[in-house]
Structure formats: structure tokens, C-alpha cells
Amino acid sequence: xxxxxxxxxxxxxxxxxxxxxxxxxxxxxxxxxxxxxxxxxxxxxxxxxxxxxxxxxxxxxxxxxxxxxxxxxxxxxxxxxxxxxxxxxxxxxxxxxxxxxxxxxxxxxxxxxxxxxxxxxxxxxxxxxxxxxxxxxxxxxxxxxxxxxxxxxxxxxxxxxxxxxxxxxxxxxxxxxxxxxxxxxxxxxxxxxxxxxxxxxxxxxxxxxxxxxxxxxxxxxxxxxxxxxxxxxxxxxxxxxxxxxxxxxxxxxxxxxxxxxxxxxxxxxxxxxxxxxxxxxxxxxxxxxxxxxxxxxxxxxxxxxxxxxxxxxxxxxxxxxxxxxxxxxxxxxxxxxxxxxxxxxxxxxxxxxxxxxxxxxxxxxxxxxxxxxxxxxxxx
Length: 380
Ligand SMILES: Cc1ncc(COP(=O)(O)O)c(C=O)c1O
Description:
The protein is of the alpha/beta class. It has two domains: 5-20 and 288-377, Aspartate Aminotransferase, domain 1 (Alpha-Beta Complex), CATH 3.90.1150; 29-285, Type I PLP-dependent aspartate aminotransferase-like (Major domain) (Aspartate Aminotransferase, domain 2, 3-Layer(aba) Sandwich), CATH 3.40.640.10. The protein is built from eleven helices and twelve strands. The chain has helices at 27-39, 50-66, 80-90, 110-113, 132-143, 166-176, 195-198, 272-286, 288-308, 334-343, 365-377; strands at residues 15-16, 74-77, 97-101, 120-123, 148-154, 179-183, 202-206, 218-222, 324-326, 346-347, 349-351, 354-357. The strands form three sheets. A seven-stranded mixed beta sheet has the order 2-8-7-6-5-3-4, with helices on both faces. Strands 9-12-11 form a three-stranded antiparallel beta sheet, with no helix packed on it. Helix 1 packs antiparallel against helix 8 (272-286) and helix 9 packs parallel to helix 11 (365-377). The radius of gyration is 22 Å and the shape is globular. The structure holds pyridoxal-5'-phosphate (PLP). Pyridoxal-5'-phosphate is lined by residues 79-81, 105, 107, 154, 158, 183, 185-186, 206. Residues 79-81, 105, 107, 154, 158, 183, 185-186, 206 line the site of pyridoxal-5'-phosphate.
């Protein structure tokens, strides 16, 4: 794939290597949003069926991206914390520990920690060094036992891109009757994910990072475990017969079947939904594998030269290519690094002790070379 920068409105003087913070919008995604906004000038053109048409398209497209064949298992969520809360309230094991990776994003921590039925077991990353990813995965597996209610984890770690061995984690969780919940926010869209192969019980994805959509909309998958659950919100659209607007006050006791009950109120957002549709359509053309390969080739030489300067970056076999952490030792410090990044106008994130670099198909060698120049200059 060649660089796709022309599909975006980025400024050449800034090297934006920070998709894990927030993706830039593609021009056509912007256009879809503006069209949605303008549509409301003339609400008489918005029909009852419009409330359901585009959301169904979105559920289908999301399914194509994650190899999940049943769109009725996909729902629109406003945030990961919202999606996880529905999980917490409806898990089949009503008590037991929740296994998490230490240092994972708080949206996949607070909904659990707020519920006293579920003590948390954080599995710390081994200290940086050889076989870190392998050892970490082994320790996660060791932490899963018959006292475990769920493992709630990412596909990768959101700071250093280390991949979790979801296949083995699924096997172990299944053997002890525990759920597997995946926060795919930092991977889905840019890293292949096969829902039918992994078979998680739920998957939550914020839309504004690797799905390349707008803020405040994301997608979730809920499996059979949640089919009879009670949603955290009682919005009218999730009740049976809600598509018949003339009969809405014939109040219904029953939710829509299976996962659909968990969809957020006002999910037929006429601005955000078309934007996310436009974004995912483009991702399906590029493919997550294509994006991985692009990012790997883009950063290959740069990573080599940063390593030779003393920076530490995990082996590409155990981490994602669209998101990785750079660690440093005594030959520099955070203050020098921040100053150099600012001088070269390179945008990355500093999370814990890592410099998180997260490129995408809009980046080119110029961006990566600026990062290398800045980090070389930061060496004492
Ligand atoms: C791994 C991960 N999950 C979720 C989120 C966003 O969570 P929420 O949608 O609850 O704001 C982020 C944001 O950085 C993230 O990195």
C-alpha cells in the first residue's frame, strides 16, 4: 500500500504519530458528518425507517471487520466504560475474581472495581527484558483458576502494543467457566481480529482511534452469555416493536432479542453513524493486515536506528506494528525528550515510562525520520 495521506487534511509541518490518542478524520468521513448535520435542516426528509437503516449498515460493516457473521450481536455504544458496565451487570458468574493486565486503560478497570462482587487480580508485566511478552502471557494464564469470573483485557496493551495470547486465554477461561471480555479499542481496525476464532463473550471498541471514526461512538459485540441480561439503561428503542412509532405507548415489557438490548439510547445518531460507516468502509478496503504491514515497513529502519542509540523497543514478533512503546535508560530523560519532540514537531504520547508511537497509513518516512532525529538529539 502506498501512503494514504491525501485522504486526510494533516499539516506537513507536524508529524502525527499518535493514532492511539485519536485518529485524524479522513476527508470523506468529515463529509459524511457534515451531510448528516445538514440533513436536520429539513427534518421532514428524515423518515421513521431512517432511524434503523444506517445503524444496520454499521452493524454489518463492523461484523465484516472482525469476522462476526451476526449483526444482531453488534450494538452501538457511546464509550468502552458504558459497554463494560453492561458486561459487569450481566456476567454469568455473579462472584469471582477478574483477571486484568496491570496498567490497562481505566475504562476496563473502574466498572469492575466499583462492584464488590468482583475482586481484581492485576497481572503485572515482568520487568522489561528478554521474553517479556511470553512471560507476561504465561503469568496471565497462571492467574486464571476456578475462582475466576472473567478475564477482561485488551488484544494488545494500550501503551507498548504487546499482544496477548487470546487463543490460550480463551481456552483456559473456558476450562474454568470464566468469561473472556476484550477491549479492542487499541487494535480493532488496524490489527486483524477474528471473532469466530477467538470467541470472546464480549468485545468493546471505541470508534475514534483505529476505527477512524468520530468521538462518542463505538461498537460492541455481546455473545450468548448476555442474551437474557438486563441493560444498564432502559431506552425505548431497545423494546420490542419500537420501530412502529405510532404504537410507542403500547409499552412493552420485553427487550429486543439477545444483544440488541444493550444498545445506547439515541443510537440512530444521524451525524456519528454515517461517519463511522464511511470510516469502516475505507478500513475494509485497506484491511487491518494491510495497515499492519504498512506500519511495519514504515518503522522498520527507524526502530533499528533507535535501538542502536540505546532505546529499547520490544521485538516485532510479540507486539503490534501500529502501536509500540519506546523505553529509555540513563542516557536521556523525559525533559530532554519532550523538548526534542516539540522542536521537531513530532506528536506521540507519553504514558507511564513509555513513549508510545502509533503510526498509520497517513504517515510517511518524513514523519518517522523526524521522530528518529528528535530522539537522537535527546541523547545526552
Ligand atoms: C484501551 C482503551 N480502551 C478504551 C479507551 C477509551 O475508553 P472510553 O470509551 O470509555 O472513554 C481508551 C482510550 O484511550 C483506550 O486506550
